Amino acid sequence: MDAVTNVPLPQNEPVLSYAPGSAEREELVAKLEELGSRSIDLPMRIGGESRMGGGEPIDVVQPHRHAAVLGTMRNATREDARDAVAAAKAAAPAWRAMSFDDRAAILLRAAELLSGPWRATINAATMLGQSKTVQQAEIDSACELIDFWRFNVSYARDLIAQQPLSVKGVWNRMEQRPLEGFVYAITPFNFTAIAGNLPTAPALMGNVVVWKPSPTQQFAAELTMRLLEEAGMPPGVINMVTGDGLAVSDVALNDPELAGVHFTGSTRTFQHLWRSVGENIANYRSYPRIVGETGGKDFIVAHSSADPEVLRTAIVRGAFEYQGQKCSAASRAFVARSVWEQVRDDLVTETEALTMGDVTDLSNFVGAVIDRRAFDKLAKVLEDAKSDPTLTVLAGGTADDSVGYFVRPTIIEGTDPSHDVFRTEYFGPVVAVHVYEDEKFDEVLKVVDEGSAYALTGAVLARDRAAVAKASEALRFAAGNFYVNDRPTGSIVGQQPFGGGRASGTNDKAGSAQNLSRWSSPRAIKETFVAPTVSSYPHQG
Ligand SMILES: NC(=O)c1ccc[n+]([C@@H]2O[C@H](COP(=O)([O-])OP(=O)(O)OC[C@H]3O[C@@H](n4cnc5c(N)ncnc54)[C@H](O)[C@@H]3O)[C@@H](O)[C@H]2O)c1
Ligand SMILES: N[C@@H](CCC=O)C(=O)O
Question: Which of 127, 199, 311, 333 pairs with 60 at a CA distance of 20 to 30 A?
Answer without folding.
Answer: 199
